[in-house]
Automatic annotation (TrEMBL):
Residues 247-270, 289-314 are annotated as: Disordered. Residues 433-524 form the Cwf19-like protein C-terminal domain. GO terms for cellular component: post-mRNA release spliceosomal complex. GO terms for molecular function: RNA lariat debranching enzyme activator activity. Residues 303-314 have a biased composition (Polar residues). It comes from the Eukaryota. This is CWF19-like protein 1. It comes from Bucco capensis (collared puffbird). Pfam families: CwfJ_C_1, CwfJ_C_2. SUPFAM superfamilies: HIT-like. InterPro entries: Cwf19-like, Cwf19-like_C_dom-1, Cwf19-like_C_dom-2, HIT-like_sf.
Length: 527
């Protein structure tokens, strides 16, 4: 059992546990997070200390969160407070006889060093992480106990209600949870119950699959709103679970809520280091200069560039840079600030369109944040537009043997096939050609599975479902179009090759005019 803030209401807590155990059988232990003692604890606590009353279950508690309750915890390294109630200590790892590993951190976050007796500091967190991460083959811990919530835990998740996780909670706890990868993380202090959707601890298709983590915040014991303050769960120690079973991803699993903040922190750290040598950056070239530093001119392979800097110049004439004379501007149907929309040359259907960046970007993973934002706006507008016509769109990108990003958007009638049938068609036709097309989990962005410069093909439905293939050798250039043109979907096999579908310019102009007029109510660029 896990429990939220007890606030000294021991009789209420243990009375409830006795009732639960009489119905459901005995539990192995009770883990208490948040404030175990309150301002009126003395009378009740005295009865447990003197042996008049006894906890009905082995109970493990975290330490003080304020100066007023520090005196209840005589030994910072942990001790038995009374029969069947144990204070775990300031920080550490509790290992049960079954092999269950419980990491714990007492108190609230402090910026002071050393931290007050009721707080923890960055040093405490670093030392706890170091002691555990240095263990050979460390995969994570079974349970993490903290009193504060981790900052940002609500990212990618189900609603946290009135709690704003961007402001609430501890950044240090978020860092600890990210590093220790607990299967269960319990916290309290916010007087509410919240069970977050499980989140993954690896980057899909980039890292070896790992177990998921579950965050559960518990309310205070006996609260008037009857919010949940006790959580019952069964767990087999990680060390006893088969690896394949351990890494199974449950339905509804989300992205890791802490990854972005960690990456931002690393970037901040890197920029601070860069500011220390403002005059120039240096790279080592042992062959030419025998280990001496030489200034970088920004052309070295190791030089990292910002997202904005990736708006590079094409190596030759580009058919899709809007400023290029090569662009067939009569096909353009909408122009935004960073992107534009154009009918496809030799389109599979009359309303087959392309979303294209105005500047020169090779792929989605190279886009700057403002371009990504406008691409998303065009996707939303096209979804609304096509749905108004009884259609759903299928979008695909081939980052292979192309120099300018083209997001191909092709509508499919809603009554013609389901999104599941579209996915099955892509996957089955990929298998026929020995192409491994994998479904990317919900809430995962393409930039999380592909690095800039990586050749890939990906499909996206207007439901947000995505399929991804990392290209390692040859790849059929018309694959996406061929699947959609197949008998299973649009039944237009004769239009699978765009070169056979070119129309006269006058016909193209008429199609573009018609599309512009139809799309106008949905075109945010005109507002």
């Amino acid at each position: 059992l896990a429990c939220g803030d007890v606030e000294g209401r021991l009789d209420t807590l243990f009375g409830r546990i006795r009732a639960i155990q009489s119905k459901s059988g005995r539990f192995d232990m009770l883990l208490c997070v948040g404030n175990f003692f309150g301002s009126t604890s003395e009378a009740e606590w005295a009865e447990y200390c003197t042996g008049v009353k006894k906890a009905p279950i082995p109970t493990y508690v975290l330490g003080a969160n304020d100066q007023g309750t520090v005196s209840y915890f005589p030994d910072v390294s942990g001790c038995e407070l009374t029969d069947n109630i144990t204070y775990l200590g300031r920080r550490g790892l509790y290992s049960g006889t079954s092999g269950l590993q419980i990491a714990y951190l007492s108190g609230t976050e402090s910026q002071e060093e050393p931290a007050p007796a009721y707080s923890f500091s960055a040093k405490d967190v670093t030392e706890l992480k170091t002691s555990l991460l240095s263990s050979p083959n460390f995969k994570g811990v079974d349970i993490l106990l903290t009193s504060p919530w981790p900052r940002g835990v609500g990212a990618f998740a189900n609603s946290t209600g009135e709690i704003d996780t961007k402001k609430c909670g501890s950044k240090l706890v978020a860092d600890l949870a990210s590093s220790l990868k607990p299967r269960y993380h319990f916290a309290a202090l916010e007087k509410t119950y919240y069970e977050r959707l499980p989140y993954r601890n690896h980057k899909v298709l980039q890292e070896t699959p790992q177990h998921v983590s579950r965050f559960i915040a518990l309310a205070d014991v006996g609260n008037a709103s009857k919010k949940k303050y006790l959580y019952a769960f069964s767990i087999v120690p990680m060390s006893s679970v088969e690896p394949a079973e351990l890494v199974k991803q449950p339905q509804g699993v989300t992205e890791n809520p802490y990854r972005k903040s960690q990456e931002a922190a690393q970037k901040t750290k890197a920029s601070l280091h860069a500011e220390e040598e403002p005059a120039c950056q240096f790279f080592f070239d042992l062959k030419k200069h025998q280990g001496k530093k030489r200034p970088s001119d920004g052309k070295e392979r190791g030089n990292s560039q910002s997202k904005q800097a990736k708006n590079s110049q094409p190596t030759g004439p580009c058919w899709f840079c809007l400023a290029s004379p090569e662009v067939e501007k009569h096909l353009v149907v909408s122009i935004g600030t960073h992107c534009y929309l154009a009918l496809a040359k030799g389109g599979l259907l009359p309303d087959h369109v392309l979303i294209l960046p105005i500047g020169h970007y090779q792929s989605v993973v190279d886009l700057s944040s403002e371009v990504v934002e406008e691409v998303t706006k065009y996707k939303c507008a096209l979804k609304e537009f096509f749905r108004s016509k009884g259609k759903r769109y299928v979008l695909f990108e081939r980052n292979y043997r192309s120099q300018h990003l083209q997001l191909q958007v092709i509508p499919v009638p809603l009554d013609h096939c389901t999104s599941e049938e579209i996915k099955e068609s892509f996957i089955s036709q990929a298998q026929e050609q020995q192409i491994e097309l994998l479904e990317i989990p919900e809430h995962t962005d393409i930039t999380q599975v592909a690095q800039p410069g990586t050749p890939y093909f990906y499909v996206e439905l207007d439901t947000g479902e995505k399929l991804f293939h990392r290209i390692r050798g040859r790849f059929p250039l018309q694959f996406g179009r061929e699947v959609l043109a197949s008998e299973a979907l649009l039944a237009l096999p004769q239009r699978a090759d765009w070169r056979r579908c070119e129309a006269e310019r006058a016909d193209e102009e008429a199609q573009a005019r018609a599309f512009r007029q139809d799309f106008q109510p949905f075109d945010f660029a005109l507002r």
